[in-house]
Amino acid sequence: MTETHSQTPHAEIAGAGIGGLASAIALAQRGWSVTVHERAPDLRTFGAGIYIWSNGLRVLKALGAYEQATAGAHIGPVMEMRDNHNRITEIIPINGPGQARLITILRETLLTALVARCRELGVDIRTGSEVIGARAEGALLLADGSERPADLVVGADGINSRVRDSLGLLEYRRKLGYGAIRLMVPRATDDLPAADRDKYIEHFTGSRRILYTPASAHDLYIALCCAAEDLPAQQLPPDAGLWQADFPWLGSIIERFHAGGRWDAFEVIRLKAWSAGRVAILGDGAHAMPPYLGQGGGTALMNALSLAEAVAAGAGPIEARLAAWEATERPLTEHTQEQSERQGDMNFWPDALRAEVMALTSKSPELAALRLRTARHIPAGTAHVADL
């Protein structure tokens, strides 16, 4: 077994994304020394917005990153789904008394806050450090041929995780036949009627959809979603005429689409196990899901904090603590994946059927509870956080 030769437990983490940085903070808070390896030469992130529900907000508070991460956040009054005639088909109440809380922020704002908290806690973040795999005994393998021994190794290196694949943990990886172009667009006062301007709205026409998300006072996060075989809709820069034909009521926004943005295909990933020996996998590398519930970041935050709780406070060897972590957290994460996939099934339904089902869903407390179960969850390690 690899030894770190230190009384202070040490963790080596691959990936400086949400999951990697959150786990680094949580471990450092519990007295661990931590090194994070990021392949990119800097810590800049792709420009996009991100949804953070109550569960993720509780984790940010527990990590001490809440105030900086939510500075300038947008707090919408409601989420709506609309049909191909811009009629409301479903309403999801949020941010009111007794309701799930939801904010939207720039992804860069979130990562900057997590990096700052890492720095405060003495986490060593190394950019330009490429990870190529891991040893289950407890070592991270780098592209320069060196090995980094650790009491715990965390693979938070994304959907194409080399840590995961080096240990043969993948059970299946399935493309969902759908994806999105993500864009940031400046906000303008005439984008929508005043009553709609601050809402989160998902617009459907055929198999295409546009997600309208205010992410700050000045920024709109736009997701242009379509089938994987719909090549004209994946064009970069986006074809304004094509999108205006389907969503004419969003014309002033569509006119401002620019050459930025990136197409991403939606996938689902399941693992045989979330760990092997002293190595744990979290984030998209362990449980990638389509973004329909806005919980990709939320589950990464929850599982990062609960991982640190399990290894720092659990009993027995690290291997047993990781198994206990997975047994506790995996059921909710897989519930979230399944609910996200079900939401995506509607992409290919006829407009009239989709609108009818959404209207029925909006009136069903049981279905609403299934959808918001993760959002309302109180993650491990956040019992001391005051209700949001």
Write a structural description.
There is one protein chain. This protein has 388 residues and is α/β, with parallel strands linked by helices. The protein has a domain at 10-72 and 105-174 and 267-347: FAD/NAD(P)-binding domain (3-Layer(bba) Sandwich). The chain has 12 helices and 18 strands. It has helices at 18-29, 54-63, 66-69, 107-120, 162-166, 240-246, 251-254, 284-287, 296-313, 318-345, 351-362, 365-376; strands at 10-14, 33-38, 49-53, 78-82, 88-93, 102-106, 124-127, 131-135, 139-142, 147-149, 152-155, 170-186, 200-205, 208-214, 219-227, 262-271, 275-276, 279-281. A 7-stranded mixed sheet has the order 5-4-13-14-15-12-16. Strands 7-2-1-11-18-17 form a 6-stranded mixed sheet. α1 (18-29) runs parallel beside α9 (296-313). The longest helix has 28 residues, at 318-345. It is globular, with a radius of gyration of 21 Å.
Strand content: 25-35%
Cα end-to-end separation: 43 Å
What is the CATH class of the domain at 10-72 and 105-174 and 267-347?
Answer: Alpha Beta
Look up the CATH topology of the domain at 10-72 and 105-174 and 267-347.
FAD/NAD(P)-binding domain
What are the low-pLDDT stretches, counting only 5+ consecutive residues below 50?
Answer: 1-5
* CATH architecture verdict of the domain at 10-72 and 105-174 and 267-347: 3-Layer(bba) Sandwich
Q: Count the helices. How many?
A: 12
Structural class: alpha/beta
How many β-strand runs? 18
Biggest sheet layout: 7 strands, mixed
Keywords, separated by commas or semicolons:
388 residues; alpha/beta; FAD/NAD(P)-binding domain; 7-stranded mixed beta sheet; 18 strands; 34% helix; globular; disordered N terminus
